[in-house]
DNA sequence: AAAAATAATGCAATCGGTTGCACTGTAAAT
DNA sequence: ATTTACAGTGCAACCGATTGCATTATTTTT
């Protein structure tokens, strides 16, 4: 059986002897259509299985009903949670999503921004790649008054709305906790300090040391990637420190898990010899031994909030430029990997 | 500065004194345009910053240049790898992606299929929810001759092309390995047997037992969800078996990690008391103690291949209906969690 | 009862790219 | 030298929904 053509508003109009304009108006909730007519139209639309042709509609309306999402990496527990949150809100509000990832590459990020712009997304949600050094590539969005919301990795002083956590406080809390457990030589494994998330955590780490009269030693800070191979290498660098640290604050749970594995293989006892604090509260933190103390980072909520921000801006309910930065609650979750003392 | 309107082919046409049709033809690689004209047009297009309006183009061409992707869950390491593979190929070939997830819910899956159909995607890549019982909701795609490729979770005998691994063999290999390690009472923790991936692995498990003269005992098979809470519960059920099993084949690495955690907390030694084999070769399998023996499942490649299948079908290079099923290589990766004997 | 306001609908242009058909001019074939 | 072919280009009709403006019918106001 040959496939029939799709049903259009013209088909409905012809069948009912009304004009396409009336059908169009009836299918939305414009009140400029008589009640009887509207009912007939809606009934016929359902009966014929009418579906809006979004291309025609978008073309005419000059908007896409689509949000662009740019992430620095797809294969990450945290990012997946955020995406899931965004998707949840987008689905509810009938927005579509185009997802692009930069693989931590500024060049690809620029290409993606460009691409999404030309795909005419109505708004953008983004987390920056590790080597992005400015926001020039988002300028076209700003010029066109398209809302942009950054999450997690942002430029705190630059354009766009932001949804973040207090990374300074998180870093401070993690370090303070290690100090309270009796650690005196605390190392810090982190990633590109160009990114606020890492530089702020470092700042918190330093502040906690200072507040406790511990001298900062830059050899104790290891900056590298967070993927498996980098993590293993960082762990080896830890093992070469002399004297060995008695605590490590690591800005990523997966990285912490790999580091712990290497340390354990080297005969180091955790937490007795070295206490560990991770970051993110990924599922992995509960299935490694010892269980990982970490900072709970509400990714799903972050996604939902970023999406809601954008969408309520688009619907005119609120203006994204007035509430510029939203800080979500994050907190230290204490598990075995850092418990030297039973308090 | 007020934003200028977007550049259209009409702007280019006017500027050069040619017709829009010629511009349109020049911008694609139709050979029906003179060489000099084409060059001028391309130069002007670049200079003015012209970008195709995809809505207009899609509307006219009646296709979207977009692939729909339906997954049963977003927050999964395996799925993320697949998505990453799909994205990689889609980006190369200039296809967009719309990603929808069913949260393991057949009803939502049906809604998603419907939605993607009406968004007029050019093709569909899908993995089934755990309680999906038929493929009726994909019929509209078939009727419209839109290609559908299923991956991972498929109906092996039903419509559509499939990209899968040999789950029977994987199950057989995992079980055979445990038997070779001296296990005699092997439990199996798995999920919905309506899904080929789980039923086939179970079949492999049974076949290996049979081939080694071990009687199948259905109390040794635990069917439940694979998320954290279900996994913990399954572990408790294992602990209630009497006699205790001396080996477990678990169809998911994360689930295996949780189970191991619970077993270890209960004082069971792995692999001495109980050997464990997981499934997927997620990153997690290498950072838990002991490291997890598992089946390597090439998610990224699976995504790439599914996407390539669809796209080459769409481009007319190959017909998806002729190569109906593609089976990817998977293999047992032996680590500490199952090594009872140093062989 | 006449005038004014309002509700319900239609007309037709518009969004921007694509493509079948027709036309022109030059090159190739006879 | 004539016919034939074809490369290069333009015309105009689409694709389907939206919306400002005009028109008609109906209700309200005075």
TrEMBL record, chains A, B:
Residues 7-61 form the HTH lacI-type domain. The keyword Methyltransferase does not apply. It holds the Pfam family Peripla_BP_3. Keywords: DNA-binding, Transcription, Transcription regulation. PROSITE patterns: HTH_LACI_2 (PS50932). GO terms for molecular function: DNA-binding transcription factor activity; transcription cis-regulatory region binding. SMART domains: HTH_LACI. CDD domains: HTH_LacI, PBP1_LacI_sugar_binding-like. Signal peptide: none annotated. This is Putative LacI family transcriptional regulator. It comes from Flavihumibacter petaseus NBRC 106054.
């Amino acid at each position: 059986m040959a496939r029939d053509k799709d049903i259009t508003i013209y088909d409905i109009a012809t069948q009912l002897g009304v004009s396409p304009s009336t059908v169009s108006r009836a299918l939305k909730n414009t009140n400029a259509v008589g009640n009887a007519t509207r009912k007939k139209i809606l009934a016929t639309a359902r009966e014929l299985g009418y579906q809006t042709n979004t291309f025609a509609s978008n073309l005419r309306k000059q908007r896409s009903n689509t949000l662009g999402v740019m992430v620095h990496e797809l294969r990450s527990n945290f990012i997946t949670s955020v995406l899931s949150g965004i998707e949840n809100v987008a689905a509810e509000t009938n927005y579509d999503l185009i997802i692009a990832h930069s693989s931590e590459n500024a060049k690809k990020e620029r290409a993606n921004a460009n691409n999404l712009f030309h795909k005419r997304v109505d708004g953008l949600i983004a987390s920056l790649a590790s080597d992005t050094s400015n926001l020039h590539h988002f300028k076209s969005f700003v010029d066109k008054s398209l809302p942009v919301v950054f999450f997690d990795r942002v430029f705190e002083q630059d354009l766009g709305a932001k949804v973040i956590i207090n990374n300074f406080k998180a870093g401070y809390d993690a370090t303070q906790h290690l100090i309270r457990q009796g650690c005196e030589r605390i190392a810090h494994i982190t990633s590109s300090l160009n990114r606020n998330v890492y530089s702020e955590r470092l700042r918190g780490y330093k502040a906690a040391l200072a507040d406790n009269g511990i001298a900062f030693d830059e050899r104790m800070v290891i900056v590298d990637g967070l993927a498996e191979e980098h993590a293993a290498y960082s762990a080896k660098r830890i093992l070469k420190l002399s004297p060995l640290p008695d605590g490590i604050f690591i800005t990523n749970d997966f990285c912490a898990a790999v580091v712990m594995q290497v340390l354990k293989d080297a005969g180091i006892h955790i937490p007795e010899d070295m206490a560990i604090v991770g970051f993110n509260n990924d599922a992995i933190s509960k299935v490694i031994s010892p269980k990982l103390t970490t900072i709970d980072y509400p990714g799903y909520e972050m996604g939902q909030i970023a999406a809601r921000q954008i969408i309520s801006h688009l619907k005119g309910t609120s203006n994204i430029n007035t509430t510029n930065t939203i800080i979500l609650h994050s907190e230290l979750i204490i598990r075995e990997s850092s418990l030297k003392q039973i308090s």
